[in-house]
Design a protein that fits this description.
four-stranded mixed sheet; about 450 residues; globular; Aspartate Aminotransferase, domain 2; 2 domains; 15 strands; Aspartate Aminotransferase, domain 1; 13 helices
């Protein structure tokens, strides 16, 4: 008996209803937002998205890393409905509520920081990053921020300045925020090494800005938009040592790496290194806007009253979803599942690399994996056109994929960790067929 298939394509891609919506969109929605796939969602469940034409796709994008606990998990949906029926908003800094406190308690208990901790909640990852910088500046009395090549920290002014990739995120957006300094991030495939990156950071403190002017070093334990490049343990340990030596606050941006994606609840657990602050967002609330900063109490409590806040911070409906997400992680062991999913994907990717020389690198932690496509394996010349063509071919086969990397030549995996084994294999088969169509 043939296996039941999840992918179901009823029309050409895009179908007629998606094309009609695209026409309406072109007359109503700002053009800078029209950079998406040519299909329009009607509903989503676990690891699938069904478009308005009834076509069913496996989702390896996960709303850019937001659906670690799956689309529309029934426990999350129930929690959202229950909280929405009680109240939608009060502004926690005006009339507080228990869900905020419970979520703070549970995340502080999970955070890989062996000290008294506190948490504060916001709406988007960019807000978490900017508030982490605020807290670090107030704690140290210093203005400077160090970020890294390949980093993505958000799109508001300070976080956009900290973001490395210039186009499209920063083109024409200057002047940028002052006191942001950029250092190299190690890359086992393209260089520099961890030792070289640390040496150049130390050189920055001699030639560019003194260490005593730096409030914080902000880094991703594995680059997200920068191409899924994991930080070597030597580099993370070196950052901690530099911060300790100079009184600098170390911030781990776990907006994309957090919530099980790398096979640990937080990616920092891979390194046995404690950050001072952690930023979280994306999969924290399964798709509702919520972000947070978790960190050492002396830093989090050191700011003056009103230094951080906002009307919608820690929305109670989003926090109800977040509490349900934590329950799902515990009950379904999604951290363990990330390792199972990641091992299978890596196995297939390594087989593809043996088959096609254009796959220059396979990398990542847990289920946060990517392939890097190159024109020539010797020169490592980036091949963004091959990545784009593969994503297009995959969509026509019922699989949603995303690019990343400074050159746009990496294809990343952000599928729900709840994906069933059979659906995972079907998706990987579709990806392999797409690679064969593009690479021969």
């Amino acid at each position: 008996m043939a296996a039941t298939r999840t992918i179901e394509l009823k029309t050409e891609i895009p179908g007629p209803r998606s094309r009609a919506l695209a026409e309406r969109e072109s007359h109503a929605v700002a053009r800078p937002l029209l950079v998406h796939l040519p299909i329009f969602a009607a509903r989503a469940a676990n690891a699938t998205i069904t478009d308005v034409d009834g076509n069913v796709f496996v989702d390896f994008a996960g709303g850019v890393g937001v659906a670690n606990a799956g689309h529309a998990h029934p426990d999350v949906v129930d929690a959202v409905a229950e909280q929405a029926a009680r109240f939608l908003h009060t502004d926690y800094t005006v009339v507080p509520y228990e869900t905020y406190i419970e979520l703070a308690e549970r995340l502080c208990a999970l955070a890989p920081i062996d000290a008294e901790t506190r948490a504060a909640f916001f709406n988007a990852g960019t807000e978490a990053v900017e508030n982490a910088v605020k807290l670090a500046r107030l704690h140290t009395g210093r203005p400077g921020v160090v970020a890294f090549e390949g980093a993505f920290h958000g799109r508001t002014l300070l976080s956009m300045t900290m973001t490395s990739k210039f186009h499209p995120y920063k083109t024409g957006m200057g002047p940028y925020a002052p006191e942001v300094h950029r250092a190299p991030f190690p890359n086992a495939y393209r260089g520099p090494s961890a030792g070289e990156a640390l040496a150049r950071l130390e050189r920055m403190f001699e030639a560019d800005v003194p260490a005593e002017r730096i409030a914080t070093i902000v880094f991703e334990p594995q680059l997200g938009e920068g191409g899924f490049v994991p930080a070597p343990a030597e580099f993370v340990e070196g950052l901690r040592a530099i911060c300790d030596a100079h009184g600098i606050v170390l911030v781990a941006d776990e907006v994309q790496t957090g919530f099980g994606r790398t096979g640990r609840m937080f990616a920092m657990e891979h390194f046995d290194v404690e950050p001072d602050l952690i930023t979280v967002a994306k999969s924290i609330a399964a798709g509702l806007p919520l972000s947070g900063v978790i960190g050492r109490a002396e830093i989090m409590d050191g700011a003056h009253a009103g230094a951080i806040g906002g009307t919608y911070i820690g929305n109670p409906v989003a926090q109800a979803a977040a509490l349900a997400v934590l329950d799902v992680f515990a009950e379904e062991d999604l951290v363990g599942r990330a390792n199972v999913v990641g091992e299978r994907i890596r196995e297939r990717m390594l087989a593809w690399q043996e088959r096609w020389a254009e796959i220059g690198d396979v990398r990542g932690l847990g289920a946060m994996l990517a392939i890097e496509l190159v024109r020539d394996p010797e020169t490592k010349e980036p091949a963004p056109e091959l990545a784009a063509a593969t994503i297009d071919a995959a969509l026509k086969r019922g699989l949603i994929l995303l690019r990343s990397g400074l050159y746009g030549n990496c294809i990343r995996v952000l599928c729900p960790l709840t994906i069933e084994d059979a659906v995972l294999e079907e998706a990987l088969d579709a990806w392999e067929d797409a690679l064969a169509a593009v690479l021969g």
